[in-house]
User: Which sequence fits this backbone?
């Protein structure tokens, strides 16, 4: 059964926000960035074909997962390296030599550590400014420690009490370990929490299984401005529904 776009009880104590796709997005298409940086290393591949290859590799590569209590020592850098290597192998029809992929990946990884590689959606800051008045805000993201610097670079950390990332938990949404960690950090029951994200599987299904509410971000029609309107007007009638 498809998840409804939002599930809102009468009051929330904590709002969890996904990051990439919800708060921030790449400043330019991933394939274009990959193509430009690859060119610096003598690799010729078009932006569109790299975009398609990236999507294929992303779907094919299982998300990083580690035993409970044993987060990766490399902050999931190795997983990102495999993703980049598979992206170029799909686009080019052959694997790149280690002497090429190693420095190419290092530059890509460093690029996406920078605030300039990311942009904040226009509706984010106004929404956070309004919602922080009477809610605790926490980031819950499938990302690594680079996210801290990215959010700080865009002056977004001021709105969030905590940033929970998959590389420190050792599992990725929709794995329940991420959502249970979120509840432990928040120190409150699932029914008092709302998760906000753009991915129905990772964000919606995980929240559903945990018992949290879920608001599906679908820009341009349903952005964070729509969330604020629902919260502020108390337009909860008919939305207190089971997600199952």
Assistant:
């Amino acid at each position: 059964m498809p998840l409804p776009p939002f599930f809102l009880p009468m009051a929330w104590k904590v709002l969890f926000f996904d990051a990439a796709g919800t708060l921030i997005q790449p400043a330019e298409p991933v394939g274009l960035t990959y193509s430009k940086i690859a060119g610096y290393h003598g690799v010729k591949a078009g932006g569109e074909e790299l975009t398609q290859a990236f999507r294929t590799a992303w779907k094919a590569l299982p998300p990083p997962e580690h035993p409970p209590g044993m987060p990766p020592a490399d902050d999931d850098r190795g997983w990102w390296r495999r993703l980049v290597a598979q992206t170029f192998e799909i686009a080019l029809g052959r694997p790149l030599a280690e002497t090429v992929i190693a420095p190419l990946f290092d530059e890509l990884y460093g690029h996406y550590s920078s605030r300039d590689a990311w942009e904040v959606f226009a509706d984010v800051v106004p929404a956070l400014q309004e919602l922080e008045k009477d809610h605790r805000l926490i980031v819950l993201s499938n990302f690594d420690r680079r996210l801290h610097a990215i959010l700080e670079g865009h002056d977004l950390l001021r709105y969030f009490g905590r940033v929970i990332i998959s590389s420190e938990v050792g599992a990725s949404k929709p794995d329940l370990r991420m959502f249970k960690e979120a509840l432990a950090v928040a120190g409150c029951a699932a029914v008092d929490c709302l998760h906000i994200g753009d991915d129905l599987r990772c964000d919606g299904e995980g929240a559903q299984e945990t018992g949290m509410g879920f608001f599906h971000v679908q820009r341009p029609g349903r952005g964070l401005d729509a969330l604020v309107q629902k919260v502020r007007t108390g337009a909860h009638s008919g939305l207190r529904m089971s997600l199952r």
In short: Residues 16 and 239 are 19 Å apart (CA to CA). The domain at 26-116 is CATH 1.10.150.720 (DNA polymerase; domain 1). The first helix runs from residue 30 to 40. The chain has two domains: 14-23+121-233, 26-116.
